[in-house]
## 1
Amino acid sequence: MIYFDNAATSYPKPQSVINAVRNSMFLYGANPGRSGHAFSVKTAETVYETRELLDGFFDGYGSEFICFTVNCTHALNTAIKGILNKGDHVIISSLEHNSVTRPIHALKEKGFITYSVFSVCEDKEETLENFKNAFTRNTKLCVVTAVSNVFGNILPIKELSRVAHSMGAYFFVDGAQGAGVIPISMKNDGIDCLCIPGHKGLLGPMGTGALLHGNVDLKPLIQGGTGSSSFDLNQPENFPERLESGTLNVPGICGLKEGLKVVEKIGVDNIRKRENEICKEIFEGLKDIKKVKLYRDFYNEELYAPVLSFNIDGLHSEQVSAMLDRGGVAVRGGFHCSPLAHISMGTNDTGTVRISPSFRTTKKDINILLNLIRKIAIKEFI
């Protein structure tokens, strides 16, 4: 199988990540923060080291302000529901994933909040103007994706955060497609809360994620055992315990730790450069295939992350994806849990076929993909 679905989850995982998950069952099998014996303390130390790595990687506000979650969706729900009060107004972008849209829409349906959607455009100034116009007197929160999971647009995070803060609103970022792919600095970019998956660009196992914040007064999504203050029936006020109840996914955290080390060793800039080179080559190849529809006129590495969507005239995206699968190539067809993005680009009837390579994608992989798409487009491969 040739794998072009790294925007869903990275594959294959580095061997060091696989080894870390396996070895954790032997080396870190005790419950961190739940016992005073040496085995538990040793496990707690590796969890703490992973917090420190995340804090340094994203230029965060301290390891105590990092909460481990089961995925990015869990982190986003914790952040969004943890900050909002009845009557608040929220702003989101026209490219948001359902992990942002659904919790916010659910709160709106309950009459708890209101929200607005601003259009992301090719022109940055127009995007910023649309964003400014979405504010109301009670706007409490802005939530935007760092990178569109469908079309690869990189949003102007730093400029958007400045506007949000000037209007007295919090600025939260969905880092699902940006973490490990583009540089993200919480302090420099003005991010109050960053939600990330561990299993995509950070190369860790599925079932891992994190919420990083700047000492934001977040209410916990769940309450329970934290290994501290057991006779207090109230959830602890201090972080990270306030947001972390129950036993952590230690094997996953150990794998995430090793994934972070791999990404740091290679360098985010080097990964992005390589993946953009691959995406650009695929883009240029697709441009020459009749009946293939692309959703940008040219490939601009500054404006887009290495995620590429296309369609073939007369075929639904899921049909094309299925045919590629039969040819041994894994891509994703459909709507990618992002209806707003498809509505904004007019692909809400067919969805798109999404290609997301990795820095390990080879020239041979690219040629096989393009040859298959050519055959599908001229109906030589059904």
Note: The mean pLDDT is 95.
## 2
Amino acid sequence: MKSILSIILLVVAFFAALPFIGNKTTTPEVKHKLDADGNFILHEWVPSHTGKGADWDYNLKPVQVSERVWCFFGAMEMPTKDNAGDMSNSCYIKGDDAWIAWDSGPSYIFASQAYAEMKKIADMPVKAVIISHEHDDHWLGNSYYKEVHHATIYGPSVINENYYGPRHIDGKDYPGMQTRMIKALYQNAIRGTTLPRVDKSFEETTKLNISGVNMEYVKVGYAHSEEDWFLYLPDDKVVLVADVVMNGRVTSNRDGIVIGQINALNAIKSRDWEHLVPGHGFITDKTAADESVQYFTLMKDRVLEKMDDGITADFITKEVTLDEFKDKDLYWVLSAGNVFRSYEELEMFDEDDLIDYSAEGADTDTSGEDSETQEDAA
């Protein structure tokens, strides 16, 4: 009886949705589905415009992590219209005469509201924005810092390669790329957001000194995404690691690789730190990375063990369930997919792919890159 009722409800829902299918803008009877500009936004290409509705209020509250690092902590869920994309962590570092932003958040409006809060702590401009990786919940606020503060944006080269803003070619105007956030969020949250290019990229781990703050921008390569970096502040014993560490929730490894994640965690472990800010999650003490270390170590070991037992890819998610993480957010949404993708990767596993950073030493940048970058950034 319940299954018949479910089918009936699905059919009713389908026909109720028909007026919205194929329409970029419409006037549904349920008014709360309209954004502040009167648009019903679907997950398809929608012309950008300057709306007149009130900006989304992210209700941001900075949390002080160390003497000169404050962070905004996002929701432990996927990006939705209800959280307006605020589901990752971003930080501010207090320099001598300027702020340095680490990951700029999901939109122009988010970044502008974050800065308004930080200005109350110290009325200084944002001189630099440093980006961890290409996933758009971490860097779509760049447009605010570029437009208002004329900040220098440091980040992975893949952002410039994989994303593009509006273009004018052969007398024709073409729209900018629409990322996940731009497609998903209401206009009163995403309005004004564009895709500015990264100004400075590096090939290897590089030391920076910006506004009197010593930093090490550490390349870990292909880990959670195609190109991941973390930021180490040696004088402060703080490491800002973005999505190579999550706690309180299961990671999404849709673009990542298990061995790359383990190598990234080993690189983080090789630094001397007291506070770690993950890409998602609220734990920032010495235990902040423990869940990620356990998750990827167990996944690697158990998938390899089941391979040795002759378990095929079709059955691996039934055999490797990582029950230790069932109480974590997004476990039921993401973990099975992570396990399945790890099977495909680990079919080619070689022990030599694992990097022992304690043996190699933490400092991998060249003195030439170091001095040049400090001069440029000072």
Note: The first helix runs from residue 2 to 17.
